[in-house]
Design goal:
The chain has 76 residues and is mainly β. The protein is built from no helices and 6 strands.
Amino acid sequence: YLTTSSYYSIRDAYTEQEIIPFDDFNTKLSADSNGMYFKLYMKGLQPERYYRILIKHVNGSDVKIYDDNHYFKVIR
């Protein structure tokens, strides 16, 4: 389970360039009765490219970054 101290990052799947870095305020995951989620402004991403989602989980002094190969493609 993830805690409320969890964040997302977006990377270009091809170049590995960090497009949206982890940020303690702007990339914090939200939660509701269905689970954790985040909203992503897609117009800032280049069409016809693949991107990868990474999750950072902070639990006290323990920090883990999960990279489970979750990809998505922005289409026109």
